[in-house]
Every structure is written in structure tokens, then in C-alpha cells.
From TrEMBL:
Coiled coil: none annotated. It comes from the Bacteria. InterPro entries: 6-hairpin_glycosidase_sf, 6hp_glycosidase-like_sf, Glyco_hydro_88, UG_Glycosaminoglycan_Hydrolase. Keywords: Hydrolase. This is Glycoside hydrolase family 88 protein. Gene3D superfamilies: 1.50.10.10. Belongs to the glycosyl hydrolase 88 family. It holds the Pfam family Glyco_hydro_88. It comes from Alkalibacterium iburiense. One of its GO terms (molecular function) is hydrolase activity.
Length: 376
């Protein structure tokens, strides 16, 4: 059913290998990706796209490119360039960890563990958080967490499994518990970020960086919650995480417009100027599929299957790009609030859209956990 969309995506990914010429895409301007020399938080998604393209096609053009870009990610880690962030999981799970899962290359496993060690430097054990942004102990950012970071926790769980060390897993659980308690509101919506007193750990306030308002629900953040809590349940078996994923999924679905692709914020005024965020819906689609894989298949969860199918139908019919385009899907938003790429291609949107296609057609489920566990 999804083969034509996959084939179309593969053609674009292959063409982009030449277009990008060893640089990394982020978001687009004038329908062309803006490239960077491996300095952005999103660079792992391009590498992950290449590994996924290789997995589904087994073509050397994708494998060669994926290996080249993975080496660049390893160099960045060795040189510690642009890694003062919580986004280590976004950078290294779809790159070095992906290569380990596909090729079982020992060096890739080692780099994955080194990346997890780098992420652990963000862990503030005294208050049980992983600091989102800024230097450790920064006066304004030192006690701040972000909902996106739920998707970085699989790197810590993976490292714990590979090393047999509980410190990675314990840090991930501490953060996820904090996120569940303070980022998810009583009505199952979510804050984008939350502040704690970095000395005492006392909760201070919820806020936003990219949403419409501090008390609104930024749709990409809600999508991170759906997928991130589902993965947390996958790793831990804690039913509280599964329940939270289901609750945030139900909120997401209940607040979708009729065309089933989310606007950038569920509380932003709906008028002729409102921007969609196709990337939020692509992420949510992966989360929906993950939930269906975890649940018992009863009719009680048919609403998830319906949401998944309608979301993918809408993305394919209304958001896929022209044949010679660099992006796979259009009308994603980076940060409407800040005026950063409010309506563009987004490399993370492309990644999760392609992951959703491969999940549905081939049951290839990305690199956020290993379906085949090794014995170290």
C-alpha cells in the first residue's frame, strides 16, 4: 500500500546525497535545504534517513553515504563540537547506534556508549533532571527540562543494555518520571519546558520556547510525548508510561483538524495565517504505530489505528513534495513563535515520515530500540 510513497522517497534521498555533498540539511529556504557542516542538533536525522534507505533497499549508494556521514558524526563526538545540549540522542541514535544495529560494527557500539556518556554529563543527579540547554549550572537554564528530551532517553537505555551499567537507565527513569509529573498536565496536554530550582529541585513553572504561549500545547511537543513515553514503556515495562503515552495520544487525536495534520500549536488561533506542522504529525504517526505494537490489538484501540491511517493518508496526499524536490514532505515548522522556518521542509519531519512508511509497509521501526538484542 505504501510502496509508491517509499519508492518516491528513495529517489529523493538518493538525489540529495549529491545535493548535500557531505554537508547536513536542517530546514529549507525557497524550497532548498539550508546546509551546515555538522553543527546542528538535527544532523542525525539525515544520517538515519540514509540508514533506513539502505535497510529497505539494500543499495550500496545509501550504505556508502550512511557510512560517510556516520564517520562525520564520530568526528564531531571526538572533537566535542556543538554538543552542549540534551540532543545527543537525536544526533547519535540514528547514526552510530543505527550502524551498530544494522552492521554490528564494534566501533559504532563504542561511539554510541561515548555519546551516552556525553549525554550523562547533562544529568543533574541532585534534582533528577537532564538539563536541556546552556552550560551546566547556567543561572537561567540550569534547572530547565524540555519535552523533546524524552526521545533522547532511548540512547541511555541502549547504553545500559550494552554495558550492563544501571547508571544510564537510572538517569533516564529519573528524567522520565520528572517529565511525566511536570510536563504532562491534568488534561493530558503538555508543557514544552519546565523550570526547577537547580539547588533544591523545587518545581517553579511550566513555559514554552516554541509554542504559542506558556500554557498552550505545542503540537510537536505533544507528539514527542506520545512516542517518547511509548518507548519508555518498551524499555522498562512501567505501565504508567504506557498510560501516559495513550493519554497524550488521545489528546492529540481529539484536537486534530478535519484534515488530520496538526497545526503548529493546538491553542493558536485558527485563521488563514495558521501554520501546519507536518513534522508533528509524522512523529505522532510513529508513536501511534509504536503504541499499536505494544497493545493487545483489541477494538478498544481502533481509534489509534484510524488516526494512524488518516494521518498517513493526509501526509501522502497533501504534503508530499514534487518529484525533483529535496524535502520528502512540506509545510513543517521549526519555530513559528520565533519566526524560524515557520513553513518549510524539516529534516526531522522527513525522517519520521519515512520511518512511519517503513513501519507500515515493512515493520522496520527506526533505531530507538533494538528488536534483536545482542549479548554484549
Amino acid at each position: 500500500m505504501y510502496k509508491p510513497a517509499i519508492e518516491e522517497a528513495l529517489k529523493k534521498i538518493e538525489a540529495n546525497i549529491t545535493h548535500f555533498n557531505s554537508e547536513f540539511p536542517h530546514t529549507s529556504e525557497d524550497k532548498k535545504y539550508v546546509l551546515n557542516p555538522n553543527t546542528n542538533w538535527t544532523n542525525g536525522f539525515w544520517v538515519g534517513l540514509l540508514w533506513q534507505a539502505y535497510e529497505v533497499s539494500q543499495e550500496s549508494v545509501f550504505k556508502n553515504a550512511a557510512q560517510l556521514y556516520t564517520r562525520l558524526m564520530e568526528e564531531r563526538l571526538t572533537e566535542n563540537r556543538g554538543l552542549d545540549t540534551h540532543d545527543i540522542g537525536f544526533l547519535y541514535t540514528p547514526s552510530v547506534v543505527a550502524e551498530w544495529q544494522i552492521k554490528e560494527k564494534p566501533e559504532s557500539k563504542d561511539f554510541g556508549i561515548k555519546a551516552a556518556d556525553r549525554l550523562m554529563e547533562r544529568y543533574r543527579e541532585n534534582i533528577g533532571i537532564i538539563q536541556a540547554w546552556g552550560p551546566l549550572g547556567d543561572p537561567t537554564q540550569g534547572g530547565r527540562i524540555i519535552i523533546d528530551c524524552l526521545m533522547n532517553m532511548p540512547l541511555l537505555f541502549w547504553a545500559s543494555e550494552k554495558t550492563g551499567k544501571d547508571n544510564y537507565k537510572n538517569a533516564a527513569i529519573a528524567f522520565i518520571d520528572k517529565a511525566r509529573r511536570y510536563l504532562i498536565r491534568g488534561d493530558d496536554s503538555s508543557y514544552h519546558t519546565f523550570y526547577f530550582n537547580q539547588e533544591t529541585g523545587q518545581p517553579e513553572k511550566g513555559a514554552t520556547q516554541q509554542g504559542y504561549a506558556d500554557g498552550s500545547t505545542w503540537t510537536r511537543g505533544q507528539a514527542w510525548a506520545i512516542y517518547g513515553f511509548a518507548l519508555a514503556y518498551r524499555y522498562t515495562g512501567d505501565k504508567n508510561y504506557l498510560e501516559t503515552s495513550l493519554r497524550t495520544a488521545k489528546f492529540f487525536v481529539d484536537h486534530l483538524p478535519e484534515h488530520f495534520v496538526a497545526y503548529w500549536d493546538f491553542d493558536a488561533p485558527v485563521d488563514d495565517t495558521i501554520k501546519p506542522d507536518s513534522s508533528a504529525s509524522a512523529i505522532a504517526a510513529c508513536g501511534f504505530h509504536e503504541l499499536l505494537d505494544l497493545l493487545d490489538g483489541s477494538s478498544e484501540y481502533d481509534w489509534i489505528k484510524e488516526a494512524l491511517n488518516k494521518t498517513m493518508d493526509a501526509l501522502i496526499s497533501d504534503y508530499t513534495t514534487e518529484e525533483d524536490s529535496q524535502g520528502l514532505i512540506d509545510h513543517g515548522s521549526y519555530s513559528v513563535r520565533e519566526g524560524k522556518s515557520p513553513d518549510s521542509y524539516t529534516i526531522w519531519g522527513d525522517y519520521f515520515y519515512f520511518e512511519a512508511l517503513l513501519r507500515l509497509e515493512h515493520n522496520l521501526r527506526g533505531y530507538w530500540y533494538e528488536s534483536k538484542k545482542d549479548s554484549n
